[in-house]
Amino acid sequence: MEACGDRFDVVVVGAGIMGSCAAYEAAKRGCRVLLLEQFDFLHYLGSSHGESRTIRATYPEEYYPPMVLEAHRLWEAAQSEAGYRVLTRTPHFDMGPAGNRSLRSVIASCKRQSSVNMRLLDRAAVDEMFSGMFRLPEGWIGVRSDAGGVIKATKAVAMFQALAIRRGAVLKDHMEVTRIKKDEEDRGVRVSTATGDSFLGKKCVVTVGPWTSKLVKAVGGHVLPIQPLHTTICYWKIKEGHEHELTPEGGFPTFASYGEIYVYGTPSLEFPGLIKIGLHGGRPCNPDRRDWTSNSGILVDAVGSWIEQMLPGKVETDKPVIIQPCMYSMTPDEDFVIDFLGGELGKDVVVAGGFSGHGFKMGPVVGRILAELAIDGAADGVELKHFRLGRFTEDPNGNAKDFDDQVSSHLHQ
């Protein structure tokens, strides 16, 4: 495809997991691709950094499991091409009160998805399957599924950037995009940066995480209801004698706990002797002016209490050993935004954001979708109606759900 100097087939703005995957997928299709990042590559200021992310196919919504299962295949394909592994497969375990609406929706969704291999467990079966690792309260149930795993987050982003470069993509960091305009003379999109650089692309993909609302408003005048949240990732010390049983080799799963608060965790992997357990929630923030200590105390107390109840005697709960900041980009319905920007820019600009703390795992499939939307004007084999921009015009709350928010409500304010 055509490329000359600062002219590209596809300009991708934002080099987190979504942008890096999109750049790779577009380059794999023979396009001349430019990937722009406003900070250093692999920075720790957004949502794609850190040691790990979970992958799971158990969702209350029916439209995510097929995407996760395709993402699994694409993760494996990328790892094979790179000769490097970033995904460790594990079982996944969901738990919660038997009457919890979100968990009941997870179970119903799994039953309708024949490709999601899951098993419903009562307390006795949980004890037997996980050798007494979890102590569920009276009235709780569990769901064990196969499609779990732990992804090395920063290393995964680096892998896709390296693959994009191998396919011929051009990567530039310290390029904050300030303007995206239709270029009628050259029949493309002109992308300008704060450094004074300007690039022409036939198409443009915007996926800038917590900065999505800010950039989309600046370049297209659209107001997107994507709220950045400041959250924290906690690693806790495992008590002596329990280190092995909380590892993947010991059979410990990735997990999600539904209830008054939503707690998630991974097996002990990236830091031997430590386990990652966090609370799915946070405080609204301005990504350019964050309070880096915001809500840490609330999160630590809530997670510590959960650990004492669910993993008694296995993990120290006085305080986490490591606390790392991160950000979510929340939509009102916790569903993604994947759509053409429209207006003056029509179908020449694709925007993706609002991944609401659960998108990283689907980076490869979202990257494929974005590349196909930019190149072909449509994405193959996926229904995108749930991710359209227009849903917020029809209803400010977005897609209707018949279950509770998964983000902890007392923190999401």
UniProtKB/TrEMBL annotation:
Record-level Gene Ontology MF annotations: flavin adenine dinucleotide binding; sarcosine oxidase activity
Ranges for domain FAD dependent oxidoreductase: 9-373
PANTHER family on file: FAD DEPENDENT OXIDOREDUCTASE DOMAIN-CONTAINING PROTEIN, PEROXISOMAL SARCOSINE OXIDASE
Gene3D superfamilies for this protein: D-Amino Acid Oxidase, subunit A, domain 2 (3.30.9.10), FAD/NAD(P)-binding domain (3.50.50.60)
Lineage of origin: Eukaryota, Viridiplantae, Streptophyta, Embryophyta, Tracheophyta
Family named by the database record: Belongs to the MSOX/MTOX family.
Pfam families tied to this protein: DAO
Named cofactor requirement(s): FAD
Designated name of the protein: FAD dependent oxidoreductase
Superkingdom of source: Eukaryota
Keywords: FAD, Flavoprotein, Oxidoreductase
